[in-house]
Amino acid sequence: MTGVETLYPFLYDGGGITGHVLSEVRRSTAEKALEIVALRETLAASHGEPLVACARRMGEAFRAGGRLLAFGNGGSGTDAQSLAALFTSPPAPARPLPALSLPQDTAALTALSNDVGFEVVFARQVAAHGRAGDIAVGLSTSGGSANVLRAFGEAARRGLMTVGFAGYDGGAMAEAETIEHLFVVPSASVHRIQEAQTTLFHVLWELTRHAVEGGL
Amino acid sequence: MERRSAADLVRDAFVRRTAPGRGLAEDAEAVARACHDMARRFHRGGRLLVFGEGSAAADAQHVAVEFVHPVLVGRRALPAVSLAGDAATLTAIAGSQGLDAVFSAQLRLLASPADIALGLSADGRCASVLRGLETAAELGALTVALVGGDGGDIARGGVVEHCLIARSADPCVVKEIHVTTYHLLWELVHVFFDQSGLLEPEAVQ
């Protein structure tokens, strides 16, 4: 059987496909929507205290004038952009906090990729922008993105606070000694991992906001 | 701000997401129907044009890369592009025609009747997204919107064929429901698309 047959055997039930497809797709949709609801509930229990500890340090870093630098690849790259935008343009009445998204600068990305290599695209930007007391936030579903790991290495060397989001079992990010606060989403689905990571960084922002305002 | 314990803040934050997450499961029929129509457009050679402002601009790029570079090996690349990713284009249009025109102006140049226009707006009130969807509908493209809250002008305007409303007024929670929704849109479009026999007009009614 192909991958699609394995996932959706109802499509191949011998001619009876048309009447049932929409209802089967509907059932599969509901299942996946409930899967992420259940995954989020487990994260509340396992990641709650580490999120608070991370938010308290981020609050101190922002109060001391630190900035946040976010990075990741592909969908995790757009998530880095979303995360930075949440800090700089939060829903009212929260106050804006300084953040930069590193994957959105196509000039820097293509220059560094062309001249040096893709594995340095975030590390070199961290070297250019990062100062001791800033906050480096990297996202990877596999936990193994080489350019994200290199950026954490550079951030740790420069005295930035380091925060990572990974999936599966955390991959190489779980082994790295350069990531102080690591949040792993224990799922084997890239999509559910990204959805849960989005919740985690939203909650982290909310807690950081309380911390900055002295309420955490 | 009222002082609450850290544990309470964490619990409240996660609990706030449960009902909207279950709401998406209840909307599975609408999601499935949107996917079926989207798959028909791709089958006819259409492209997906995605747009949103602010944080939804990042989502627009995320949606496009899901289709162009599938996470599952063996799924074919489908044509999708974000209209929210090019700062030169966006600022040029915003400067000459106003922010509300940033997507509609691009759609007038790029959209054809076979295409799919997908707009994202957390509160359903984003004027540029509404104008983009109106323009896409005028051009004959399929219109799909991911919104939240009470659905806003986008849900009420009557121009959108598939309007999926996340059941929360919190823009962060709405975004999370949208991320799951567009992951499902991608996955289910492929389920239909891989079975091209299902995409004939009479196949599924």
From TrEMBL, chain A:
Record-given protein name: D-sedoheptulose 7-phosphate isomerase
Keywords carried by this UniProt record: Isomerase
Family annotation (PROSITE patterns): SIS
Record GO terms (molecular function): carbohydrate derivative binding; isomerase activity
Any one biological process term the GO annotation gives: carbohydrate derivative metabolic process
Boundaries of every SIS domain copy: 58-216
Gene3D superfamilies named in the record: Glucose-6-phosphate isomerase like protein, domain 1
InterPro entries, A to Z: GmhA/DiaA (IPR035461), SIS_dom (IPR001347), SIS_dom_sf (IPR046348), SIS_GmhA/DiaA_subfam (IPR050099)
Native source species: Thermomonospora echinospora
Record has Isomerase as a keyword: yes
Isomerase found in the keyword field: yes
Domain of life: Bacteria
From TrEMBL, chain B:
Biological-process GO terms, alphabetical: carbohydrate derivative metabolic process
Domain of life: Bacteria
GO molecular function: carbohydrate derivative binding; isomerase activity
Pfam families in the cross-refs: SIS_2 (PF13580)
Residues annotated as domain SIS: 38-198
Keywords, sorted A to Z: Isomerase
InterPro entries: GmhA/DiaA, SIS_dom, SIS_dom_sf, SIS_GmhA/DiaA_subfam
UniProt protein name: D-sedoheptulose 7-phosphate isomerase
Species whose genome carries this gene: Thermomonospora echinospora
